[in-house]
Design goal:
heterodimer, A: Lipocalin, eight-stranded antiparallel beta barrel, elongated, B: alpha/beta, Rossmann fold, six-stranded parallel sheet, 6 strands, about 40% helix
Chain lengths: ~180, ~190
């Protein structure tokens, strides 16, 4: 059995498959995790470099009044910074495990991030495509990206956690 | 460039209205100001009436929508925002997605006859404006002992207060200019 290196598995040009992809965030609000997602994603995988972006305007949350607040300067400031961007600097694959380093830009602030997760493929599907899928997770401190809003709870403590868990599922189809 | 000035006090001899007039005197040439003086006509907020938007609310809504920026001067009642001002902001926040305050550059100043100069009321007004989605300046101007701060002509007597007021007003103008660049780009 031959060993396939990370660079061999990710080599070449891959087309993003947004229908089979997702990006979500979870942040603790008082006691429970609050979750949201980004509907409009773009990504590319070219010769082992993973890049991606998400439209801030495409955030989906379960509270109609929270959506405008998230778009506002208190949070993402979508008018000035309409996109979140990511670009990998190193991808290490051992079996199905992925260790990924990269730079994440939110609200005009770029910070290094480390994500872990799994990779599946390349796999040939019945339609003649070669598919590759990632599931990745990272934890960031939102205040390092300038998302500083918070509120003091009446009996002490903060309403919103600084730590945010970002999870992405990305699928690519091989082009060449 | 046009700025809407809103005083949180309805009193005829209001120090906060006087502070807004002093602020207007420090604006650069070409910047116009409207002093919103119909706040008393705005009815108590009632979410059942949001869709119909009563006429006085409509007038306030349009005044904010037509302005490039908003300057609010607030007194402090019982350690917080005066009801009349909070009521107006509540109307301006529903439906939130349509609020004319969203992304609107806004600055908050304030005066009170106490020794703290409406500092908590200003902080809470900034918080409320932020929740509505305004582009709120992280600045404050607490004017304490307001009954001693103006001469008979309504001019500020303390040079330091005057300078700080001028600095905040210019920061608001800069925020409006920066937003104009963003909007022109998009």
């Amino acid at each position: 059995m031959s060993t396939v290196t990370a660079s061999e598995r990710l080599a070449g040009q891959w087309r993003f498959a947004p229908v089979h992809s997702a990006a979500e965030f979870a942040v603790k609000y008082v006691v429970a995790k609050f979750r949201g997602s980004f509907g409009e994603l773009d990504a590319s995988l070219n010769d082992g470099v993973l890049s991606g972006s998400a439209k801030v305007a495409s955030i989906s949350v379960k509270d109609q009044n929270l959506y405008p607040h998230l778009q506002s300067p208190d949070f993402f400031d979508a008018e000035n910074h309409p996109e979140i961007k990511f670009r990998s600097t190193n991808i290490d694959i051992q079996g199905d495990r992925v260790e990924l380093d990269g730079e994440l830009e939110i609200k005009g602030n770029t910070q290094p991030v480390h994500a872990t997760g799994t990779v599946e493929g390349p796999v040939a599907d019945p339609m003649g495509n070669t598919r590759l899928g990632f599931t990745l997770e990272t934890k960031i401190d939102r205040t390092e990206f300038g998302l500083n809003w918070n509120a003091e709870l009446p009996k002490g403590g903060k309403a919103l956690s600084d730590e945010v868990v970002l999870t992405v599922e990305l699928e690519f189809h091989k082009v060449s | 460039m046009h700025i809407l000035a809103i005083s949180g006090s309805l009193r005829e001899g209001s120090y906060n209205t006087a502070l807004l007039r002093a602020a207007a005197d420090r604006l650069p040439p070409g910047v116009t100001v409207t002093f919103y003086d119909h706040l008393e006509q705005v009815p108590a907020f009632n979410e059942d009436r949001v869709a119909e938007r009563p006429e006085p609310v409509d007038r306030l809504w349009d005044a904010v929508a037509e302005a490039d920026g908003v300057l609010i001067s607030t007194p402090e009642y019982n350690s917080s925002i005066p009801g009349v001002l909070k009521n107006a902001l509540d109307w301006l926040s529903r439906p939130l997605i349509e609020s004319p305050l969203r992304n609107k550059p806004a600055a908050v100043i304030g005066a009170s006859t106490s020794m703290f100069g409406a500092v908590w009321s200003q902080a809470e007004t900034r918080k409320v404006l932020g929740a509505i989605g305004a582009r709120v300046l992280d600045r404050e101007l607490p004017v304490p002992s307001a009954d001693e701060q103006f001469d008979e002509a309504g001019r500020l007597v303390e040079k330091e207060v005057e300078q700080e007021l001028g600095s905040i007003v210019h920061a608001l103008v800069e925020a409006i200019e920066a937003r104009a660049v963003t909007l022109a780009r998009s």
